[in-house]
UniProtKB/TrEMBL annotation:
Entry keyword set: 2Fe-2S, Iron, Iron-sulfur, Metal-binding, Molybdenum
A single GO molecular function term of this UniProt record: iron ion binding
Family annotation (PANTHER family): ALDEHYDE OXIDASE 1-RELATED (PTHR11908:SF132), XANTHINE DEHYDROGENASE (PTHR11908)
Record bears the keyword Metal-binding: yes
Keyword Iron-sulfur: yes
Pfam family, one: Fer2
UniProt protein name: Xanthine dehydrogenase/oxidase
Gene3D superfamilies given in the database record: 3.10.20.30
Stretches assigned to the 2Fe-2S ferredoxin-type domain: 12-61
Organism: Biomphalaria pfeifferi (Bloodfluke planorb)
Length: 73
C-alpha cells in the first residue's frame, strides 16, 4: 500500500532494529509501546506531565546519502 492508501502499518527503527506493526494501537504512547511491546524498559513513567524527563527517548534520522545519523532529525 502506498501513501494515502489507508495503510496502518507502523514502521520505525529502535536501536537499529526494524519494527513493523500491522495493528498498532493509536492510543498507545511511545513509552508504553517501548516498555510493554518491545520490553525496552530504560525509559520510565515518572511524573506523566512532561516535567521530570524520565520518559525521554532520543529520536534521530538515518541519512542514506551521507551514511550518518542526525540528532535531532
Ligand atoms: S514521565 Fe515524562 S516527563 Fe515525567
Amino acid at each position: 500500500m502506498g501513501e494515502g492508501s489507508g495503510s496502518s502499518v507502523l514502521c520505525f527503527y529502535v536501536n537499529g532494529q526494524k519494527i513493523e506493526d500491522s495493528a498498532p494501537d493509536p492510543k498507545m504512547t511511545l513509552l508504553t509501546y517501548l516498555r510493554d511491546k518491545l520490553r525496552l524498559t530504560g525509559s520510565k513513567l515518572g511524573c506523566g506531565e512532561g516535567g521530570c524527563g524520565a520518559c525521554t527517548v532520543m529520536v534521530s534520522r538515518y541519512s542514506d546519502d551521507t551514511d550518518t545519523v542526525k540528532y535531532p532529525f
